[in-house]
Request: fold
Amino acid sequence: MAAEARSRYELSRAGLAELLGDQPSYRVDQVWRGLYERCCELSELTDVPRPLRARLSSEPALHRALSPVSTSSSDAGATVKWLWELADGVRVETVLMHYPGRSTVCVSTQAGCAMACGFCATGQAGFTRNLRTGEIVEQVALAAREARAAGRRLSNVVFMGMGEPLANYEPVWSAVERLHGELGLSARHLTLSTVGLVPGIDRLAGERLPVNLAVSLHAANDALRSCLVPINRRYPIGALMEACGRYRAERGRRLSFEWALIDAVNDRPSDAAELAGLARPLGAHVNLIPLNPTPGYPTVGSPRHRVVAFRDQLNHLGVNATIRQNRGTAIDAACGQLAARAGSQPVALASRTPRPAARLAQWPSAGGPTTPSPRPSRSP
Ligand code: SAH
Reply:
């Protein structure tokens, strides 16, 4: 496939009509519905005459952009993860998770990421390029197709895969509009997750569709957050909280803070108290997840008892907090992990070695982090 090949999901409805200019409009409708309502392959458009199907299949604008490199499944099929290769050879991931009553897909918005959060596998790999609208929508369409095959309906999309959605604003927002308008997903069921790009949050507040906003906070003071999330130096916590307040006031949508609990770094009672001080005035929900181990980061996730204690303290302080299931750990279904494993430098997570002490010394946590404890078991 040529490097500039685009996804069939890049085309607008008008673009498809133009492409099929010699066809009656009901044919255009059939193809469009096939792509968006049934999420089917062109060969499965059985309501379209065979010669037209053949023509559609040879039409470059109707190619698929994502080729599967690998598909893995865990939790007895409740979590499915794909590693895709795009036309130019870059790789991105998509994860589908079935829960009681809902099925959620986590999509990538960039190949790699420029935000350089040290604990994130994608951040460690660096930035390659922005995804186009069609490449994002195609991830959702393929997940919706997989969900249908499992007798489920895809209900939720979280923009929490590889990349920073607000650093690729226009294509991401076009994807949101397409998912809402054509795949029929309600804005309430779409969640954008950001590292905290203040101008992007403000821009989002002015959009027509009120999507949910998740902010990856991870630390509630600037000294620690600037270490964990370098962009905090540009948009410190005060400015970020003000933007969150404006978003909430403007959109009335649920705001959540993501908090990856890192052993002895951000899981102390003082961290919970500081976090409560930020979350409570904004009515923000806190999602806690024990840090997933990644090859380039020395510390591990908090042990279960400290995760529970952290949640209980937040609840006690009047903040809604839930512990996110660590879905798909066995298949590396955490941000960027599969791509990191399948990349040019294969990483044996089991033999991960701690970073030098110089890096550890950057943490301003009281007494510094503990010596990395043995990595949690990756068995299912
Ligand atoms: N750039 C966006 C979305 C992608 S990351 C953002 O920062 O929100 C999706 C979520 O996974 C973020 O909350 C991110 O901080 C978190 N994350 C990244 N690496 C992780 C790890 N090793 N363990 C747990 N959560 C991680």
